[in-house]
Amino acid sequence: MNNLLLKLVFLFNFLWEQLGVDTVQLKAILSAKVKMDSRRASVFNTQGRTSKKALKNQDWVSILVFFVIGLFFIGPLAIFEEQATGFTLYFAGWMVMLAMTLITDFTEVLIDVRDNFILLPKPINDRTLTVSRLLHIAIYLSKLVLAFILPGLVYIGVKYGFLGMLVFGLQIVLGLVFVIFIVNLIYLLILQISTPQKFKEILNYLQIGFTVTIFSAYYLLPRLVDLEDYENADILLSPFVLLSPPSWLAGLWAFFIEGNHSLVVLLLSALAIVTPFICGWLILTVLTKTFNQKLIAITQGGGDAKDTEEKKAEVITQSTRMERLASWICNNDAEKAAFKWSWRLTARNRDYKSRVYPGFGMVPAIFVYFALNGDGSLQERWAALPESNSYLLLIYFCFLLLTTPLISSQYSNKQIASWIFHASPLKEPGWILSGTAKAIVTKYFLPAYAIMFVIGLLIWGPMVIDDFMLGFANIMLLETIILTFFQPKKIPFSDNWDNMNKGSNFTAGILSLFLAGVLGGLHYLIVDQTVLVMGIALVMIVAWYFVFRRYQLTGWKSLV
After folding, report:
1. How many CB atoms lie within 10 A of CB 298?
2. Is 321 or 166 the better-scoring residue by pLDDT?
3. Lower Cβ count inside 10 Å, N or C end of the chain?
C-alpha cells in the first residue's frame, strides 16, 4: 500500500514543483519515512516495542486492526432504525480511535526531532521539508482512515448508492479535520501542563491507557450493551445533541439523504460544515506556530528552574517513602539495596511499564466479563452479583497482577549492565532476587490487591474478608513456589525482552495459571466455612515463609 500511495503522491509532482519543492528530494524523504513507519512497532504490538529484532510491515498491523473495527462498526448503521443515531455511534468510534492512535502511535514520529539533525544540514529548502512532513502525515492518516471506512463505504454503496457514498465521503473529510484539530489541542495541553521532559512519559501512559481501552471495549461492550434494546433510539431528540461533533456529521446524512430539514438538523449540518473550516484556520494560523515553538523546547530540553525544583522535591519524597519501606521489610543491606534499585528502575523503565501496567486495567475487565456472564438484562445480572461467589474470580485473577510484574523484572534492553552483580562480593545472589520480589510485591501487588479488596467489600460485604486473606496467602505461596522451583532464576533486568516468551518461561506460565485455577477451585469448595478458611490461610502463610526463605538462599550456581 505504501508504494501505491507514494505513486499517487508523485503524480502531482507538477504541483509540488510549482510550490518550490525539489521533487527528487521529496521522493527520497517520503520513501525513507514510510519505510521507517513499516519498521516501527505499532501501538497494537506492545511486544514489538521492547524487541530488538528487525520489524517489518508493522503498519499493516494498524491497518488490519482498523479494518476489523470498521467491520464491527457497521453494526450501528445496520441495527438502528434512526440513521442519525447509527451514524453518531459510527463517527464517535472512528474519531476516538483515530485521535487516540495519532496521539499514542504517530506522536513518536511527530515529536521525533532526530531527522532534523540529518535533514537540516543537507541542502534541502524549507518548502521541501514542510511539504514532506505534511505529505507524510497525509499518507499515514490515509492508511488508517481508508482501512476503517472501507467496510462502511461498501455497505453504504450497496444500500444507498453513489449519492450515499459521496455524502459519506464528505462526512469523513470534515470529521478528519476536526480530529486533527483536537489532536493539536491535546498536544498543546499536555505541553502546557507538563515539562517537555515529561512529554514522552505522559504519552507512554496514554499508550498504555489506549491498549487497555481497546482490550476492555472488545470484551465488555458486547457484554454490557445490547444494541437491540436501543434500536429505535433517536439521537436527534437528545438535549445535548448540539454538543456532540459525531452528531453534527450525522446531521449531514439526515439533511442530504433522508431529506430531514428540521431546525435541529439544519443546526447540526451548519456546525458540521462551518466548524471544520474554523478548526482548519486555527490549525494553520495559530496551533501550528505554537506547536512548533513547543517542539523546539523539546529539542532543546526546555524546562525552567521551577520544574526542576518540583521534580527534585518529588524525588526526595518518593525516596524517603522507599527508604522507610526498605528498612521495614528487608533483612540485610544487600536485600535493601536490591529493593531500592528495583523500585527506582521499574519507575524509570518505559519498556517495563508498557508490559506491566496494561494488566492493571485488563484484569478488572476480564473479571467483569466473567462475573456478569449469564442470562437476563445487565441490571438483573448486576443485582444478582452480591448473591454469587464471583469475588473468587476477582481474588484469583489478581494472580496475574503479581506474576506479570515479577516475570517482567528479569528483562531489559540494557541487560549488559547486569555484569556489576557478578562482580560483587555477594555469597548468595538470592538476596538480590528476594529484594526485587519484595519491591514489586510492595509497589504493585499490594496496592492493587487492596483496591480489589475494597471493591469486594463494597459489593459482597464483610463476608469476603476471610476469603481475601486465604486468596492472598495462596497467591503469595504459589508465586514463590514457581519462582523457587520452576522459573529460571536470573539476576533482575539481566535478559533481553526477546527471550521473555520462550521455553521454560512459557511452561512456567502455563503451570502457574493451572495451579492458580486449582487453588481457586479448592477454595470454592470451602468458601462457606470461615474457620477452615482462616486456618488454611495461616498454614499457607507459614508455608510461604519457608519457601521464600529457600528463595533468599539461592546460590550462584542456580542462576542461568
Report:
1. 18
2. 166
3. C
What is the pLDDT confidence band of residue 354, given thresholds at 50, 70 and 90?
confident
Q: How far apart are CA 177 and CA 327, in angstroms?
A: 55
Residue 142 falls within a domain, yes or no? Answer: yes
Judge if 287 and 352 occupy the same domain: no
What is the per-residue pLDDT across 530-560, written as a single tens digit (0 to 9) for each?
A: 999 999 999 999 999 999 999 998 888 888 7
Residue with cell 489478581: 398
Which range marks the domain in which residue 400 is found?
A: 345-558
Q: What is the pLDDT of residues 483-499, one digit of tens each?
A: 888 888 888 888 877 67
| Model pLDDT for residues 364-398, shown as the tens digit of each residue | 888 888 887 777 777 777 888 888 888 999 899 89
* H or E stretch at 257: none
Q: What is the pLDDT of residues 68-100, one digit of tens each?
A: 888 888 888 888 888 888 898 899 888 888 887
In DSSP terms, 489 is beta-bridged to: 559
Domain boundary among 274, 299, 324: 299
Say which amino acid occupies 509.
Answer: G
DSSP-based three-state secondary structure for 68:
helix
Long-range pairs for 335-339: beta carbons < 8 A, 24 or more residues apart: 335/431, 335/432, 335/434, 335/435, 335/438, 335/552, 336/435, 337/435, 338/431, 338/432, 338/433, 338/434, 338/435, 338/436, 338/439, 338/492, 339/435, 339/436, 339/438, 339/439
3-state secondary structure of 534: helix
In this structure, the number of other CB atoms found within 10 A of the CB of residue 508 comes to 18
Q: Which three cell numbers stand for residue 158?
A: 450497496
> Phi and psi of 411, rounded to 5°?
-120, 150
Residue 157 CA to residue 122 CA, distance in Å, equals 48
Percent helix, strand and coil across the chain, each rounded to 5?
80, 0, 20
Which residues contact residue 387 at a Cβ distance below 8 angstroms, ignoring those fewer than 6 apart? none
Are 180 and 326 in contact, with CB atoms under 8 Å apart? no
Residues 123-153, buried b or exposed e (16+ Cβ, 10 A)? ebeeebbebbbebbbebbbebbbbbbbebbb
Q: How far apart are CA 473 and CA 458, in angstroms?
A: 22
Task: Let me know whether 258 and 398 are in one domain.
Answer: no
Same domain, 237 and 374: no
Is 135 found in the same domain as 63? yes
CA 276 to chain centre: 29
Q: What amino acid is encoded at 296 in this protein? A: I
338 found inside a domain? no
Buried b (16+ CB within 10 A) or exposed e, 300-335: eeebeeeeeeeeeeeeeeeeeebeebbeeebeeebb
| Count: domains in the chain | 2
Q: Is 446 found in the same domain as 357? A: yes
